[in-house]
Write a structure and sequence with these properties.
Elements: E1 11-14, H1 24-51, H2 57-74, H3 77-86, E2 89-92, H4 93-126, H5 131-134, H6 137-163, E3 172-173, H7 180-184, H8 192-224, H9 230-259, H10 267-290, H11 294-321
Parallel strand pairs: 1-3
Antiparallel strand pairs: 1-2
Helix pairs in contact: 1-2, 1-3, 1-10, 2-4, 2-6, 2-10, 4-6, 4-8, 4-9, 6-8, 8-9, 9-10
Amino acid sequence: MESQNVSIVTEFQLLGFQNVLEWWTLLFAIFLSIYFLTVTGNIVIITVVSQDPLHSPRYKFLKHLSFLEIWYTSTSVPLLLANLLSQGQAISFPDCIAQLYFFVFFGATKCFLPAMMAYDWYLAICSPLRYSSLMSPEICTKLVAISWLTGISTGFLPSLMISKLDFCGPNQINHLFCDLLPLMQPSCSNVYITEMVIFTLSTAVLRICFFLTLVSYVFIVSSILRIPSASGRVKTFAPCGSHLAVVTIYCGTTVSMYVCPNPHLSPEINKITSVFYPVVTPLLNPVIYSLRIKDFKDAVRKVVRRTCGIYGVRVKAGFFIG
């Protein structure tokens, strides 16, 4: 008899920023600009690394991270922009589950890939003479593959469990996109097991990645402190510190949302917090990871000069023919 009272929900309505509708034009412009800069900046990284002979494992990690950032931010920001335009975006149940899967998949991969990058920094700073053998192209490829495969498997279980829940209505999700905890709130099923699985999985992923990163940086800092000159210490730690800052921001906001959520916070505060990891941190990748690395900046200059040179020859030739 209970099953007859359960209506089948075929779509959800994402409420988005309902309390600040008067600011929707400004918010749309801000998020659209951030999305454009994020995609463009990461495409530039992929292009430069592919064209210029930057074949060290560091840049292979960076190339994969840029590719990841483009897709990670694209799982949520276009939906957020559509929500601002329509002031209440409707999304079908299958599309919502699919978006949730890719969001968790890319999010988990984004935890593991920077942890592998921290290990790469550790080898480069603490074992520079053995770096080429300890971080060979084959080992680098395996570490990248482990990151992607771990993300693929991480996204499967939460998405499957949420797809099996009953939703009796209302079909409104008070969030910006389909996310784990907001999606469980309108369910009329017992979500205790699902919540425990998500908590355990999120805790395991974050603890493993944080432990790998922390251990790497303990050895990195101890090695940097042995450098006699202050300028040498600053120069060596600058790109590592930038990497650590991005990891801290991403992991901190992720922990606050999935591992230690505050039930007393208003949904609007949770929405603002949720903006950081899919919107803000992907923008930091081109700024922090690349512009602080001298080799990459030199490679960008070479590509720009090469492109401008080709353009100049074409213009000159066209003028001459004319």
